[in-house]
From TrEMBL:
Pfam families on file: DUF4147, MOFRL
InterPro entries found in the cross-reference section: GK-like_C_sf, GK_N_sf, MOFRL, MOFRL_assoc_dom, MOFRL_protein
Keyword line: ATP-binding, Kinase, Nucleotide-binding, Transferase
Domain MOFRL-associated: 3-206
Record-given protein name: Glycerate kinase
GO molecular function, one term: glycerate kinase activity
Cellular-component GO terms for this entry: cytoplasm
Uppermost EC category: transferase
Gene3D superfamilies for the chain: Glycerate kinase, MOFRL-like N-terminal domain, MOFRL domain
Signal peptide from the UniProt entry: none
Amino acid sequence: MSKNVYIVGFGKAVLGMAAVLESKIREHIIDGIISVPIGMSAAYETELKEIKKLKIYEGASNNIPDENSLLAATKISELITLLKETDLLIVLISGGGSALLPAPKPPLSLSEKQKVISLLTSKGANIEELNAVRKQLSTLKGGNLALLAKPAKVISLILSDIIGDPIGMIASGPTVQNSDSPSLALSIIEKYDIVNQLPKSAIQILKNASNNNEIKEKFSHVNNFIIGNNETALRAASRAANDLNYQSIILSNKLKGIASTTGKNLISLVSAVMQNKVELCGEIIKKLELPSYCKDILLNNLLQDQRKNICLLLGGETTVEVHGSGIGGRNQELSLAAALELHVQKHHNIILLSAGTDGIDGPTCAAGALASTSLMKEALKKD
């Protein structure tokens, strides 16, 4: 290993990643900066004790880029531009990294970029669409961070939060060569009909990008590694369920759709399973937009041991269409919809947990929420 190691990181999980990494290679580390959500240092006091050589910046309140995360991105840029060929840059990336590494392309201001992302989010744009736009509006995303670090070697350790693990989309791919069509970002803006609501500077940058046919730079100095993803979390959850004497079934890691609709459909699916309504199971699986083979997985596993309690596991990423000014994340919205459906169907032996693997759900300090008939009864009593 090079004796001159530099570390930068951004995302909801990188404080823990950085703590472990520094404990392993501390003697080689020269300097480093990590950008994490506000409140992470207080929440991870044990991990914080392991971090002695890295500077920690907290920002992105409510998962929206802010002045604090902009400062962190600026400091990261300043650090990596000084690297030499003999240096090694290790980049730690996890979900939430996009908001924690804002570096708007001039003349776009941070507040203008915030408006673009907020508008897209409120319209229900998925993570792939958000990141495609972010890449074109940033000086660090879409592989630009890796290019800025040249001629140093770059190793990225990535925790994936996107279905299918497209490394160019995770945190908007700061160390991955941008393979998007130049016109993709502009077409997304047009799809959601928000062109007239966006700052002129943003529109101009996206139009310039759509007309850009420049030769791509080589990324031979970069190695990207997925070290954890949704499938990893599902396997761990399955082992834990088995240890608790549940029959665990991993149905899919491709769950998506509108959170509220998905929550309702998941309860309907479990209800159909409990009543042995095979055809209805197939219909609901279609509504959930899951692969057709999920029906076979479900039914084949249920025949194994009908005496055991069942733990049905799904992973993926749902979206939320924002209405009003309430707070919460996709997991809490999914759980609330599930709770309402449980209350309607009067199921007393179904419990649903929807949680984010990074421990943060939307602009809240909760990872998600539980839903059950008993919890609904308690809530209605309080009202």
